[in-house]
């Protein structure tokens, strides 16, 4: 028996509707923090569907489309599924232009709910939407397009769409839009923000941009407070002055409570001695840079943890000397011990302990974990449209951690892993990759067919067809062998996403040409485009800062700039620190997470990767803007 539109509405989770003789009621909501539709909107959905039951075509289809569009405002999985059920099978042809536009917007939002931004753009940029005469649909098209751009990490484009939408929004909608404008501004890199400041002639936009520029120069809190006060005097009627971003509201509080004496707990001797010294030198370089520029600085006491048999002894020494904050330790096992000790003063570790366990309220973790890069690779590949990865990684505890991080993140996005290969040395790359991609299977099938028909057939071996990308956890030496071996086994067309370990930190075109095409996240410090004046000073002073110890110098710099900002990152949602090691945010476990820019090898040299470098819509073949086309 065919379902009616009325009984299609049956939410089990967020914003649930139950339509029946008793009218409308809301049942248990989703835990994701999305508010359910207001009762009047639920009633409106019911009314539209009830009218659709009795209405002739094309009015029936137009009413169903409007009901689906209203349901999608809940922004939940269940509302998307129900909206899809309502419009499934509808033919918008013959409907009024505005109804066709509304149908396209529904399809665009459904595509976004499935993480298919390419298809969302197809729908929202259709002529029906562009030519729509209803201002509500025009407004909605800006909003949907902005969401799609932001999902693609095209923050400047998303910002432009929100600015176009603003004049059409009511006061409640403007409140949401202002938050989105601020969020996208904070995600812009400094060069894009500077270019926007020089190009825009709109006063309100200029105010937003100048405020974001203040936030993006967080070296000294006192100077930032002064700059914000000047901004408030210059822009008394600006929306951000009426709705001050949380990151700015907390400035005076964190300035008043920043520590005056810091104990830097690092190994100065032993196997981790060189690493500890590199972090120390980066930390102190940032300290002296701040001091020379007239900033308020704390007293620093360096404690050599190598001299202590346990971390609690080093902590006792720090507290005995009056430390108000601890930065360190570096060794993972000692971070875990300190995590269990629950230190009484604020602590910023320089590695991660147990990332699944709870931590004391004043315990923060920061480091250069490859697991974060694996998660970022999963997110990037998913947003680029890939859905069927295989994994290549070394047989090691490091490899286990990275693979687990990628797989967990991929599965949380809704994906499945197609296969996994582990290599233990140079001798088994061929066997591992051959087994993973299975080109031999197609050759065996061809031989079977030859035996059946009694004659030879022309056959081109091919790899398995259910794979569309490779996640590679490897260093540069391993990657130089993996990439050609992939090509040998007919996987040369597969996009490869890697961890930052694939790049040594020093461009070497002669050796790294075999890495061409591999994409990886890398800290700003290692990029030629990173223009922090502190980098050139450090490289001139310490030769090893531009070698494999470079990331550790960056870790030290960011630790110094991060320590007073921890309360701000903790309380002000969306706040980030743009550091030498990446864009830094704080997750609910009080672990600093790094987001890094993406690069790809071309001619053996890392090149910045264009935003949304891959376009793939239900199609395993993708074209890379960076090296497939010029």
From TrEMBL:
Transmembrane segments: none annotated. This is Penicillin-binding protein activator. The keyword Membrane applies. It comes from Spartinivicinus poritis. PROSITE patterns: PROKAR_LIPOPROTEIN (PS51257). InterPro entries: LpoA, Peripla_BP_I. PANTHER family: PENICILLIN-BINDING PROTEIN ACTIVATOR LPOA. Keywords: Membrane. The keyword DNA-binding does not apply.
């Amino acid at each position: 028996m065919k379902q009616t539109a009325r009984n299609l509405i049956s939410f089990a989770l967020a914003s649930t509707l139950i339509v029946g003789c008793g009218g409308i009621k809301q049942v248990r909501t989703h835990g994701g923090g999305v508010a359910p539709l207001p009762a009047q909107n639920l009633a409106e959905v019911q009314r539209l569907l009830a009218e659709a039951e009795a209405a002739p075509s094309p009015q029936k289809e137009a009413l169903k489309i409007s009901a689906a569009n209203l349901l999608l405002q809940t922004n939940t999985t269940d509302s998307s599924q129900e909206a899809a059920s309502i419009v499934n099978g509808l033919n918008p042809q013959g409907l009024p232009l505005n109804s066709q536009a509304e149908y396209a917007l529904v399809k665009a939002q459904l595509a976004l709910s499935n993480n298919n931004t390419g298809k969302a753009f197809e729908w929202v940029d259709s002529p029906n939407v562009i030519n729509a005469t209803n201002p509500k649909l025009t407004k909605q098209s800006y909003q949907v397009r902005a969401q799609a751009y932001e999902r693609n990490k095209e923050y400047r484009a998303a910002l432009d769409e929100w600015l176009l939408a603003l004049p059409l929004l009511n006061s409640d909608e403007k409140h949401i839009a202002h938050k989105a404008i601020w969020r996208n501004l904070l995600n812009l890199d400094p060069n894009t923000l500077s270019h926007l400041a020089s190009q825009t002639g709109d006063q309100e936009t200029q105010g937003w941009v100048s405020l974001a520029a203040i936030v993006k120069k967080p070296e000294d809190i006192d100077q930032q407070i002064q700059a914000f006060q000047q901004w408030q005097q210059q822009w008394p009627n600006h929306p951000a002055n009426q709705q001050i971003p949380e990151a700015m509201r907390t400035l005076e509080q964190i300035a008043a409570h920043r520590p005056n004496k810091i104990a830097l707990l690092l190994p100065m001797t032993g196997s981790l001695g060189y690493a500890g010294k590199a972090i120390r030198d980066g930390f102190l370089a940032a300290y002296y840079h701040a001091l020379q520029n007239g900033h308020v600085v704390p007293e620093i006491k360096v404690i050599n943890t190598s001299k202590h048999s346990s971390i609690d002894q080093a902590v006792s020494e720090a507290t005995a000397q009056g430390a108000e904050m601890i930065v360190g330790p570096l060794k993972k096992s000692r971070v875990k011990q300190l995590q269990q000790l629950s230190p009484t003063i604020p602590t910023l570790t320089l590695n991660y302990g147990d990332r699944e366990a709870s931590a004391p309220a004043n315990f923060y973790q920061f480091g250069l974990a490859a697991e974060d890069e694996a998660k970022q690779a999963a997110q990037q590949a998913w947003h680029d449209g890939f859905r069927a990865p295989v994994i290549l990684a070394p047989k090691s505890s490091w490899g286990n951690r990275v693979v687990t991080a990628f797989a967990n993140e991929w599965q949380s996005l809704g994906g499945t892993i197609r296969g996994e290969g582990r290599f233990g040395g140079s001798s088994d790359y061929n066997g591992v990759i051959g087994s993973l991609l299975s080109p031999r299977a197609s050759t065996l099938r061809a031989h079977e067919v030859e035996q059946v028909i009694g004659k030879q057939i022309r056959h081109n071996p091919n790899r398995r067809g259910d794979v569309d990308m490779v996640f590679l956890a490897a260093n540069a030496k391993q990657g130089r062998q993996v990439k050609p071996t992939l090509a040998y086994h007919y996987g040369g067309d597969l996009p490869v996403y890697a961890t930052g370990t694939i790049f040594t930190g020093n461009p070497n075109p002669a050796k790294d040409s075999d890495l061409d095409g591999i994409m990886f996240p890398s800290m700003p410090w290692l990029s030629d485009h990173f223009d922090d004046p502190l980098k050139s000073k450090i490289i001139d002073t310490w030769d090893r800062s531009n070698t494999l110890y470079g990331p550790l110098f960056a870790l030290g710099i960011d630790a110094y700039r991060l320590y007073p900002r921890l309360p701000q990152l903790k309380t002000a949602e969306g706040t980030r620190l743009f550091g030498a090691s990446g864009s830094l945010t704080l997750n609910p476990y009080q672990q600093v997470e790094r987001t890094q820019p993406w690069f790809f090898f071309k001619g053996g040299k890392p090149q910045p990767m264009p935003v949304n470098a891959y376009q793939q819509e239900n199609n395993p073949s993708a074209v890379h803007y960076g090296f497939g086309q010029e």
